[in-house]
Predict the 3D structure of the following.
Amino acid sequence: MIANYGYKDGSGDWFISIDTDKCAKCEDKPCVEACPRDMFYVFTDDWDDEVVGVVEEKRKKVKFECMPCTKLEVRPCVKACKPGAITFSF
Amino acid sequence: MAEQQQKEYWRWTESRWHNKDIDWKKADMITAGIDVGSVSSQAVIMVDGELYAYSNTRTGSNSPDSAIKAAKMALDGTGMSIDDIHYTVGTGYGRVNVPFANRAITEIACHARGANYMYGPTVRTVLDMGGQDCKAIHCDEKGKVTSFLMNDKCAAGTGRGMEVFADLLGVPITEVGDLSLQVDEEPEPVSSTCVVFAKSEASALLRAGWPKEKVLAAYCSAMAHRVVTLLEKINVEKDFAITGGIAKNKGVVVRLEKELGLKALEPRYDTQIAGALGGALFAMGLLRKQRAKK
């Protein structure tokens, strides 16, 4: 499943997409530790898979929380994610 | 002082239904799905995999009470009590606050599953236009979510937005859709990114002499445009189905279909019960699993 966290507002699209099928197979989920803003957490989804999601209270602040990392060549979470499950719309 | 009459145009009526031909006392599996949403709450009761009863009520200020109220309303006149239900799944915003639920499942999963039952296995794209959010869901033939997107950051494209407009124009919410289609020429849409801005734009248009139906048309098309941009993010595929309260508003549905170039399936049940129905379907699977373990 592709889970899109974030929103669309007058300034554009601000989404973090997580491919949970890839994510469920990854055991150590290093993206959680790699994020300097603690955006991610591990939870059991509706189909009983252990996957990563974006922390509830940060879903409406994606633009601001993730903006500092857009200046980097590769985002730390994307770099850490071995199966390549994380993508950004911005 | 003269008494002022205050009408609440946004108010919609609560409803319930049950299938009198089913005898639940002989049933092996009685499951329920309770969807406690931000504006409305629904309860769906299934007996041996068949839709038995449902209710559609307003959510109050207390989630547990709203859940109980919805369940009691669905069971009204059936002779069944909440204790007779074997397995209950809670869903929606208040899902963790359903006191008699065995498990909570997100509304995204429940809506896809419910739409799969309501519209058949050919449904691939489900758009749920709820009270305070809007969900675009892509699912497979079993009703399992393959991609989803939820907009709950702003009220644009939600039922609440429509209620605001019904109130502003003094048009009962159930008549908004039909009235908005009574225009000779489609006006330019109002702001599609914010209900507050859309409302002030609409006020200005009214002052400029626009008739009600034209303003409603401008808002309905803004709403349609808003959800289309959300839908585009999840790869729209047919068949396409709309659930939630706005599915009952023809003004939005027609404009949405036009912009998307895709016809939405005709609903066979109350579109607002999709989430609760999905919950009751999940409950069946979970009950089977629970019994197999014993």
